[in-house]
Every structure is written in C-alpha cells, then in structure tokens.
Amino acid sequence: MNGKTGVMVCGHGSRDATAVQEFEAVAEGLRARFPDNPVAYGFLEFATPIIADGLDRLRAMGCEEVLAVPGMLFSAGHAKNDIPSVLNRYQALHPDMRIRYGRELGIDPKMMRAAGERVRAAMAEAGGDVSPEQTALVVVGRGASDPDANSNAAKVMRLIWEGLGLGWGETAYSGVTFPLVKPALEHVARLGYRRIIVFPYFLFTGVLVKRIYAQTDAVAAQHPDIEFVKAGYLNDHPLVLDTFAERALDILGERNNMNCQLCKYREQVLGFEAEVGLPQESHHHHVEGIGTGDVAHHEQGGAHGHSHGHDHTHDHEHDGHTHTHHPYPFADHPLGPVTLTEKD
After folding, report:
1. Angstrom distance (rounded) from CA 22 to CA 292
2. Which stretches of 215-274 are assigned E, i.e. beta strand?
3. Whole-angstrom Cα distance, residue 262 to residue 246?
4. CA distance from start to end of the chain
5. How far apart are CA 320 and CA 140, in angstroms?
6. Residues contacting residue 2 through CB under 8 Å, at least 6 positions apart
7. What are the tens digits of pLDDT across the range 252-284?
C-alpha cells in the first residue's frame, strides 16, 4: 500500500470503558502491521471517536483511499447494513476520498487457533485430572436476528470441540436469539460431564461478557459436583490482529468476498423470507458518541446497547428518536430471545 492509503477499523462501540480501550489496542496492533500507512478507528454508537471522526482524521493525514474493515466477528446487521450506511454517507459528502469496504473476520483458521488457545489456557489454569473427554464446551456468541451469523457461532463451537477432542459441545447466545446462557448451561449440566468450559466468543469485554460470567457462576452454584471454568474472550490475540490485517489486504487483492449465500437481506432464508430487500440503513446515528459508562446508559433510559429487554417488536426510543428493526420471527421462543440483564 502507498502512504496515501489509510486503514479504518469500524467498531460497534460499548458503554464499557475497558471494551473501548481494548478496541484501541487493536488499532495499535494494526499500526504495527502497517507502519507506512495511517490507521484510525471509530464506533457506531456510545463510544468516541465515531466512524466519521476516524475518517476525518485519515483525510487530514492526506489519505486518498481508505480500506475500511468491520471490527466484527460475523456479518449480521451491523456489518451488512449499519456500517456500510455510515461509510456511504461519508463517501457522498467527500467524493475526493475513495472508501473501500472489507469483510468481517468470519470463520478463519487463524481465528480458530486463537479461540483454541483461549480454551486451552483456561483448561491448563484449571489443572486437575479432568480429561478432555470428560469436558464439555459451551461457546457463547453475541446472538443476532440473522441466522447466518448465529450459524457461524455454532460452526466455531464445532471446530473448537472437535479440534480439541472434548467430550461435548453446545452453543449459547447472550441475546436476541436462543438458547440463552442459563438454559444452555443447565442443559449441559445434565449430561454428566465433570467439567464445563464456558467460552465467550467475543472480541472485547463489556456488559454482556460480564453477565455471561455471572450467569456461569449462578449455574455453577447449583451444581457443586461439576467444575465450571470461564475461558477468556479473544481480545487482541496476535492471530486476531493478523486476521484484521489480512481483511484490509483482501480489499486490495480483490479477495474481498462476503458470503451472501445465506444473507437474509438477499436470499429467502428459512423463517426470514420477509426481510429480503430491506433498505440498507444505519440504526445507530442518534447514539453516535454519547459516551461510555453508566451515565450514558442512564441518559438513554437503558434502552440501547442492544439490551433488547423489551417485547421484541424491535422499536427503540432514544431522546425522542425512534427506530424500528424488522421483527424477529421467534420473539416468543421459550429459551429466549432476550438479552442478558443484571436480573437474570
């Protein structure tokens, strides 16, 4: 890449200040991998800088082309609609800058190796004489109203389960879809394994990761005969940073192929047929840069951050602004889909 090409990492944003710091560490890791190119970052909501601020910084540094990569594990609404909408809006306002959009981290051998190392480290720290065959794995994904993204979390679980030779594997989600963490753990606890590894397949910490660990503790207290082990999330593992760098280079190498075969916005995916052709628009413009921490959360009435503790018509109101997501077809499923709350 020449010096006029910048790299932009587009994140979701969090009310958790530590999560924001961890995302900044990813940007620093990419700067080390692209020493001759400017690297900036920005968020869709809550945290600052917002994505437009990051793009402004690259323009000010003389970038004529930007390789924008989503800071997302899987491609759901944020990667497919929200971030492209923000980038398209900025591109229209600044035609002198060419913005090229990359794909999500996705199912990648490097990501699986990083995930495997997190699980192995948790098992090693736990120690004892529990064999892999006596160990069950529960991988917890973020959860989305997009079955393509949710199925990727299940695939991650299978690859880790089989790759490490563990006794059993299950997938749970922190919200929006099902099963949620508690019913999944209660189910696995009935299978007779001596140890259960709970692995949040998240890039960064935040409210949801903390609640996943809290629910693990709650279920563990009900099953003192089973050892529950909490694995660390991915964070800035070197292989994660390598994958981010590869996604940027993929854009230049014309290998930037997003998997649209199971995209609910483009194909009639089972159960989600009504969402084909929905407009590409961001649902986060009104919460850009409102800040992190409890103050920002309370100012918004606790309504966003994708807590989804409502009736799942997917209407959200923030300071007089209302936006609507297409209704999730299984909103009344008995194992979910509501996002973890402090009361769970």
Report:
1. 13
2. 227-230
3. 23
4. 49
5. 34
6. none
7. 986 656 555 556 566 655 455 676 766 656 555
State the Cα–Cα distance between residues 157 and 188, nearest whole angstrom: 14
* Rounded distance between C-alpha atoms, residue 37 and residue 48, angstroms: 22
The tokens for 207 are 């409210």
Say how many residues make up the chain. Answer: 344
Does residue 211 form part of some domain?
Answer: yes
Q: Are 75 and 103 in contact (CB under 8 A)?
A: yes
The stretches in the chain having pLDDT less than 70 are 254-273, 275, 277-326, 328-330, 334-337, 343-344
Please indicate, yes or no, if residue 268 is contained in any of the structural domains. no
Q: Which two tokens stand for residue 276?
A: 């084909």
Burial class (CB in 10 A: 0-12, 13-18, 19+), 196: buried
* Three-state DSSP class for residue 285: helix
| 340 occurs within a structural domain | no
Q: Is the distance from CB of 180 to CB of 174 less than 8 angstroms?
A: yes
| Domains: count for the chain | 1
Strands (E), the chain: 5-11, 39-43, 65-70, 98-101, 135-141, 168-173, 195-200, 227-230, 315-318, 321-324
Domain containing 189 equals: 111-230
Whose tokens are 């990051």? That residue is 54
Half-sphere exposure of 51 (CA within 13 A, CB side): 32
Residue 18 CA, chain-centre distance (Å), reads: 16
Q: Which of 80, 70, 84 is nearest to 42 (CA)?
A: 70
Which helix H or strand E contains 16, and what residues bound it? none
Provide the CATH number for the domain around residue 166.
3.40.50.1400
> Residue 282 falls within a domain, yes or no?
no
* pTM for the model: 0.79
Express each pLDDT in 127-138 by its tens digit: 999 999 999 999
- Backbone φ and ψ for 108, nearest 5 degrees, come out as -140, 140
Cβ density class 308-336: b for 16+ within 10 Å, e for less: beeebebebebeeeebebeebebbeeeeb
